[in-house]
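Fold Annotation — chain and its backbone

Fields — amino acid sequence, C-alpha cells

___
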Amino acid sequence: MVPAVLDSGGRRLRYAVSNNVRANGPDGPGSPPVWAVNIHGYFAGGGMYWRESALLAEMLGWRVVNPSLPGFAGSDPLPWEQVSISNIAGQVGALMDHLGIDQAVLLGHSMGGAVAIEMASAYPDRVLGVVYRDGAATPAWKKRHSLLTSSLQPVAPDLAGIADLVLAVVLDFPDLLFGRRIASTFRSVWPDARRNVRAFGRTIPVGSMLMALDLSDKVVGLASSGRIPLLPVWGCFDRVANAATAAEFSDLTGLDILWVPGGHSWMLARPQSQADILRFLEPGRSFLEQVDARQRSLMNPTKDLSRRGLHALSGK
C-alpha cells in the first residue's frame, strides 16, 4: 500500500492505495480494473486494514483504497456542526474524484458499513457493490440487553448501554490475538490506534452522530431496488454489532447473512478471510459475478452527471 494525503477543502485526508501492477477488470488483462474502497470502523483507521487490502489486490486483481475518515488516524476532523454521515461519505467521494475512480466496490466495516450504505443510496451509479461487514447502519446494535445493562439500568440508565458497549469492545479485543500472525496484527493496528488515542476528542462528535443514526429506510431502498449487489458478512462471535443487529439487517433486506469465524473485527486478525470469501464461497462468487456485470453496464456513464452527483454528496 502506498500512503498519501489529500487536501480536501483545506483538511488533510490520509489514505493509501494498493500498488499491485496486475490489476485488471472483468474482461481480463487490459480492461479497466475494479476499484475497491475499504472503509474502516469507529476508532480505527485505514492503516489497520492494509494487510487485508493488499491481499484483495493480489488475489482479485483489484485496486484498493484505504481512507482514514475525518477525525481518525491522523486525518483532520470535520467541524462539529458538519459531522454527519452524508458529509463523511462525501469525503470518501472526494477521494474517489481525486483518484479518478468512476465506480468502486465498497467494503464497509462497522461504522464504515453505514458510510457505504449512505454512499450507495446517495449516488448509486458510483457504487459497484457493497460488502457490508458487521455494520452499524441500523439501530439494533445500540439496544443492549446484557446482564450488565439490566444491572445498571435502574441506577444509571444513561450509562447502561454505553457501559455494555465498552465491555463488548473489550471482550472483542482478544479475537485479534488468535490470528496466525499476531505480531503483524499488532503492527498494523497500533499506529492508527495510537493516533486515535492522542486525538480522542476528535472522535467524540462522530460517536455522538453514530448513536443517533438510523439508515434503515436507505437499507430497505437499496435492497428493494436490486441495482447494487449487497453481501452482508458477520463475525459469529460479534458482541459489538451482535446477532440481533445481523438479524435486523437480514429482515430489512431479505438477504441471508454470511457468518464467518471471529468477533467484530475478524478481518484484522485474519486478513485473508475476505478474499477467500469472495473467491471460494458461493455467496462471494455470486457477488463478484454481479459486480462484474454491473461494471460492464456502467462502462460509459455520463461523466459530467457523475461529477455533479459527487459534488452534491460532498456538500460542495
